[in-house]
Amino acid sequence: MCKFCSSDRVISVSAKCSDLSTVEFGNKEHNGYLPDDLGIGGGDYVEFDLCLNCGRVQGEWPLPESGIERRATPRLPTLVDDRHQGMIQDLSARMTDSDGTDFLGCAEILLQDEDPQTVMVGIRYLLEDPMTRNAGFQMIEWIRDWTHFQQVRRQLMPTLRQIDEDEDAEEDDY
User: Fold this and answer.
1) Taking burial as the number of CB atoms within 10 A of a residue's CB, which of 118, 126, 145, 148 is the most buried?
2) Which residues, given as ranges, of the chain have pLDDT below 70?
3) What are the tens digits of pLDDT across the range 30-61?
4) Contact (Cβ atoms closer than 8 angstroms) between residue 15 and residue 45
5) Separation CA 24–CA 39 (nearest Å)
6) pTM of the complete model
7) Is 112 left (phi over 0), alpha (psi -120 to 50) or beta?
8) Is 58 within 8 Å of 50 (Cβ atoms)?
9) Alpha-carbon span 44 to 136, nearest angstrom
């Protein structure tokens, strides 16, 4: 019986997908075994009950935040104030125009004022987006000999730890 409309027109669906499922949420895509925290089965199988009267999937809703939601939601807030807004816009334009590959152009933008806070905000901005993350890591490598490197590195540690945790969680899904 349907939990929503009390109809008895409820079918059970079970489909074996093995490791061939694709789940998209926001800017993240998961390919492989079906995650088991979505309320529609998990692992090798897609499983759910569907009411043919009201069209609703049966189950206990809402669900807690799923793994793919956690990875798709930006959890690394960039501390951008008015002073850094122009630099972020320049970085964004440079990365968009170059398909995320103009590392030298990014370095020029970040280091033009030699300000550690500006460099940290810019690198954090690059690290937050998976499409520009390589540029962020490259910037860290390039400033290793810079006078203010240790200060910037300390400020970036929470962001780098969060990226490691997210990548570990993503590996656990496979």
Assistant:
1) 126
2) 27, 72-81, 170-174
3) 888 999 999 999 999 999 999 999 999 999 88
4) yes
5) 15
6) 0.53
7) alpha
8) yes
9) 37
